[in-house]
């Protein structure tokens, strides 16, 4: 069962959340980030080329112009491959674990899988970031030696940064799956 | 919990039969390792399982049945398969079924014993996870979970989560050795059932490695016996050897060679990777060294180098002389104490004169020496670079001497000044108590002390300036040497075999797994594809870095500045086994 809704991120850009219910114990949430804005790309390219042209008029060396083109191309490729995240996915499978995938604009995918035995809970945390108060969804991991303590906090959807309404949807869904785990868990 | 069935992708096209594998009750997962085909005799199947269990220490059982309908579904086969549940009793009993032409599977897991109504079994939810058996077998999961040592007769291996799956598959090699060409009564299907996979080159290398290792180990033991003889322990030789980085580098490489060619087998995958990394690093080193050698010995480069060396040394000495003449005048507009200036300037100029004469004395032999030293590049590029660094140290020995003289003079001055400053204030340094105590001085002591203090403080700028200039020169030489050492360290410690493996066979170095949900239909069991998530390159370098010589700076920036200010001598590298001055 698939559903798509639109939300906004903390800066006001548009996000699309795709919810996929494969079964009562397996769900996938896919948040797609705002696309690369053409305006920003044009602005950066124009700035770099104008600066190069300015240097060229000073130095009369045409290597500067070709270097500027080269730099712009490489910079764009590097940005698409290493920086620009297209969509972030959270796959939660009861009794297996949680998998987080970030796919970059160039097609590269970065996956992390956390086993269910290490997960304590999923919560929405509040944080003060500069002048803003933002909410983020995070996974609490437990220490293997001390099951009652939290050893690590792993934030999810870090590049997409959705707002609270989107996070609540994801949170509720995840808690339904985790409730089953807590019911059958052997922890006291 | 949902029952997870790990099914190998190689068995999806196999004929119907029994599922054989390991059941992990804590995680409610069934790891299917192979499929046993009809016809079979149950006793023989049980014997085979017991045999493999003994060889691999993994608890193998019959998990259920696998049904692959090639044509129309056969009713009789279905009943027959259900009847098998009574022969091989296992809780829960798994029944997987796939019809040719349909994309979806059907799975059932039944519990007979724990049902409340006798005769009607409870059914569990099943989740199918496909995995590539060969890749999981060959991969090594990082960070390794601590497994209990299973040589003490432990029948079961316990590990957490997914590490248990990897562990099960990698331990069951005994099961995967049985293929269809064996004359076995039981027919199995797994990743190697078409025939054992092996490479001729690898097998030949394995056979050859025994005698080669033995031979090289003998040679190396001879060399180490020769170097351990008493002749090398006579006094000046160990001291000189500790000052040269070449000896350190040669010793380091010798240790690597002994480890690589030792006749002991590697104890674990980490040791094996380390040996492989060392071997590749040695080979690359020697290859680069031979390239350098061929480049040096072609077109009379050695002659050109030797011809350029003497004028270069002359040029450096001339520049130093100019520098001293400048210091002896009015450097940067500062007014120096003429007498002290002249004394120090002449002292250092005489040193330079001696040095130049020494270099000119050596000049006929330089080409010969360089030619022989260039031959050492066949031992490796790192050795050649260490020799270069040592030659640089030897050629700039006079700068080092000047630095020591300047620093000692400055140090004495600073200590004198601080002691006399205490005298001014009527205090004294108590050596016994290691603290400053008050003291009443006589009048003549105070008078002499004040005079000396004044003299020292007026001579301070001159000494300080000489100290500053020579320290900067020394730091420049040290920086160049440091860069060469950095390059040598890089070649020594980079794990090239691991990086190559990560590039070409990424499944061998696993950081974890990733799952992909396959096409799903409501009412059918969930199907996932498990793939190996390879280790990122930075983690590969971090985990498999070889230990270096240990030549790294021992001072932090703060302590370095403090030492420079007080005129204490700086020894930039911490050599292994170096005594503190």
TrEMBL record, chain A:
One of the Pfam families matching this protein, by short name = PIG-H
Q: Where are the transmembrane segments?
A: 36-56, 62-82
What does the UniProt keyword field contain?
Answer: Glycosyltransferase, Membrane, Transferase, Transmembrane, Transmembrane helix
Q: Which GO terms describe its cellular component?
A: glycosylphosphatidylinositol-N-acetylglucosaminyltransferase (GPI-GnT) complex
- What range does the record give for the signal peptide? none
* Phosphatidylinositol N-acetylglucosaminyltransferase subunit H conserved domain span: 89-158
- Which molecular function terms from Gene Ontology are attached? glycosyltransferase activity
Part of which pathway? Glycolipid biosynthesis; glycosylphosphatidylinositol-anchor biosynthesis
BP GO terms, sorted? GPI anchor biosynthetic process
- Is Transferase there in the keyword field? yes
The entry's family comment says: Belongs to the PIGH family.
| Name of the protein this chain belongs to | Phosphatidylinositol N-acetylglucosaminyltransferase subunit H
Q: What is the originating organism of this protein?
A: Fukomys damarensis
Give the lineage: Eukaryota, Metazoa, Chordata, Craniata, Vertebrata
């Amino acid at each position: 069962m698939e559903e798509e809704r639109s939300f906004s991120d903390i800066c006001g850009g548009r996000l699309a959340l795709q919810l996929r219910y494969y079964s009562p114990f397996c769900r996938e949430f896919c948040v797609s980030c705002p696309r690369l804005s053409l305006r920003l790309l044009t602005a950066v390219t124009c700035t770099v080329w104008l600066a190069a042209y300015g240097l060229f008029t000073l130095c009369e060396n045409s290597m500067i112009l070709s270097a500027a083109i080269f730099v712009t191309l490489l910079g764009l490729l590097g940005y698409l491959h290493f920086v620009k995240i297209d969509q972030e996915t959270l796959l939660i499978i009861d009794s297996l674990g949680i998998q987080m995938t970030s796919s970059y604009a160039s097609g590269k995918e970065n996956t992390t899988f956390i086993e269910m035995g290490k997960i304590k809970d999923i919560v929405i945390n509040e944080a003060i970031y500069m002048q803003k108060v933002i909410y983020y969804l995070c996974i609490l991991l437990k220490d293997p030696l001390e099951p009652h303590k939290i050893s690590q906090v792993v934030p999810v959807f870090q590049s997409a940064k959705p707002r609270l309404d989107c996070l609540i949807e994801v949170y509720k869904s995840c808690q339904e799956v985790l409730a089953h785990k807590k019911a059958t868990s052997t922890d006291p | 919990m949902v029952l997870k069935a790990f099914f190998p992708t190689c068995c999806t096209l196999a004929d119907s039969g029994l599922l054989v594998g390991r059941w992990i009750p804590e995680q409610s997962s069934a790891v299917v390792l192979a499929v046993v085909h009809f016809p079979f005799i149950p006793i023989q199947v049980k014997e085979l399982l017991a045999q493999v269990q003994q060889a691999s220490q993994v608890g193998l059982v019959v998990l259920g049945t696998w049904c692959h309908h090639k044509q129309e579904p056969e009713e009789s086969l279905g009943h027959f398969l259900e009847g098998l549940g009574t022969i091989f009793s296992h809780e829960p009993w798994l029944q997987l079924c796939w019809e040719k032409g349909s994309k979806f599977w059907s799975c059932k897991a039944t519990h007979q014993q724990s049902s409340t109504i006798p005769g009607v079994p409870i059914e569990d939810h099943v989740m199918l996870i496909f995995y590539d058996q060969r890749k999981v077998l060959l991969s090594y999961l990082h960070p390794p979970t601590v497994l209990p040592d299973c040589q003490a007769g432990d029948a079961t291996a316990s590990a957490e989560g997914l590490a248990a799956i990897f562990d099960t598959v990698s331990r069951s090699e005994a099961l995967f050795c049985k293929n269809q060409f064996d004359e076995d009564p039981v027919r199995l299907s797994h990743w190697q059932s078409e025939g054992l996979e092996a490479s001729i080159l690898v097998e030949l290398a394995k056979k050859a490695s025994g005698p080669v290792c033995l031979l090289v180990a003998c040679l190396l033991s001879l060399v180490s016996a020769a170097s351990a003889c008493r002749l090398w322990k006579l006094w000046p030789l160990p001291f000189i050897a500790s000052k040269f980085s070449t000896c350190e580098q040669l010793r380091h490489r010798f240790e690597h060679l002994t480890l690589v060619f030792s006749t002991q087998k590697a104890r674990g995958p980490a040791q094996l990777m380390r040996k492989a990394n060392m071997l590749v690093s040695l080979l690359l080193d020697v290859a680069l060294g031979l390239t350098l050698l061929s480049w040096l010995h072609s077109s009379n480069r050695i002659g050109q180098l030797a011809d350029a060396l003497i004028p270069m040394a002359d040029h450096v000495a001339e520049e130093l002389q100019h520098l001293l003449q400048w210091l002896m005048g009015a450097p940067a507009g500062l007014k120096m104490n003429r007498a002290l200036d002249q004394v120090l300037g002449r002292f250092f100029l005489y040193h330079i004169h001696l040095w130049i004469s020494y270099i000119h004395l050596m000049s006929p032999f330089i080409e010969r020496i360089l030619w022989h030293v260039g031959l050492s590049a066949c031992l490796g590029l790192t050795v050649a670079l260490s020799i270069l660094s040592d030659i640089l140290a030897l050629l700039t020995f006079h700068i080092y001497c000047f630095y020591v003289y300047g620093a000692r003079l400055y140090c004495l001055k600073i200590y004198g000044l601080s002691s006399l400053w205490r005298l001014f204030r009527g205090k004294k340094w108590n050596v016994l108590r290691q603290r400053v105590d008050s003291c009443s001085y006589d009048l003549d002591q105070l008078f002499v002390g004040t005079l000396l203090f004044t003299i020292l403080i007026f001579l301070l700028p001159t000494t300080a300036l000489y100290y500053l200039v020579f320290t900067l020169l020394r730091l420049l030489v040290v920086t160049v040497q440091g860069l060469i050492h950095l390059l040598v360290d890089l070649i020594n410690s980079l794990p090239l075999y691991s990086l190559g493996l990560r590039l070409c066979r990424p499944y061998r170095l696993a950081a974890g797994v990733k799952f992909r949900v396959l096409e799903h239909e409501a009412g059918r069991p969930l199907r996932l594809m498990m793939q190996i998530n390879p280790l990122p390159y930075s983690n590969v370098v971090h985990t498999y870095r070889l230990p270096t010589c240990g030549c790294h700076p021992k001072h932090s920036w703060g302590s370095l500045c403090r030492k420079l200010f007080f005129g204490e001598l700086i020894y930039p590298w911490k050599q292994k086994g170096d005594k503190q001055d």
